[in-house]
Amino acid sequence: MFIWVLFVALLFPAGFAGWAVGHYSSLGSSSTTVVHTVTLGSTSPATTTSPATTTSVATTTGASGGGDAAAGKAVFAANSCASCHTFKPANATGTIGPNLDTAPTSDAKADHNMDLAAFIKQSIEDPNAYIAKGYTKGIMPTTFGQSLTPKQLNDLVAFIASGSSG
After folding, report:
1. Is the dihedral of CA 97, 102, 153, 119 positive or negative?
2. Rounded Cα distance, 130 and 124, in Å
3. Global model pTM greater than 0.85
4. In a domain, 39, yes or no
């Protein structure tokens, strides 16, 4: 009975924690499979490495620091941007904030002809720096600049820039 209690109390949670860390610590990073083949009785083991397959996606450069538009779509969804913004690439139909299909391009031009990626990034980090026509200060939360990692922010900028038009 004591061994069963010890297993349940110590080993099972430790095994679950190891499984969770192993499955979730590599989110967002590419995976590479490495296979090592060792032949017993041979003087030199054979080693085989399988390279990871990569694909290229749309990225932005400049003020955004580069970003992955495909990853940005996940950031958009995870941060509930669709609840406030209309944006066709995300199938979003929110009406609280500006329409991201058109507003970023026209608003960047209205804001001293600012670079689109720089404008989008500023609008996320400091949403009150430029207020779109028809909206008021304080509608968008000001916390995304702190809650998103630099990579997430750059990915989100790339995603919005890739789907915005004037």
Report:
1. negative
2. 11
3. no
4. no
Instruction: Dump pLDDT digits (tens) for 129-153.
Output: 999 999 999 999 999 999 999 999 9
Give the tens place of pLDDT for each residue, 88-104.
999 999 999 999 999 99
The predicted pLDDT at position 12 comes to 45
Q: Does residue 124 lie in a domain region? A: yes
Which residue carries 């779509």 as its tokens? 73
With beta carbons less than 8 A apart as the criterion, state whether 59 and 158 touch: yes
Kindly report the CATH number assigned to the domain that includes residue 108.
Answer: 1.10.760.10
DSSP state of 137: T
Is 15 part of any domain?
no
Report yes or no on 50 lying in a domain. no
Residue 156 CB partners (closer than 8 Å, separation 6+): 67, 72, 75, 76, 79, 81, 124, 148
Range(s) of the domain holding residue 119: 62-163
Question: What gap in Å lies between CA 77 and CA 72, rounded to an integer?
Answer: 9
Element (H, E) at 48: strand 47-50
Is the distance from CB of 70 to CB of 158 less than 8 angstroms? Answer: no
Q: Please indicate whether residue 118 or residue 31 has the higher confidence score (pLDDT).
A: 118
Q: How many structural domains are present in the chain?
A: 1
Give me the chain's average pLDDT, please: 75
Write down the residue that tokens 């969804």 correspond to: 77
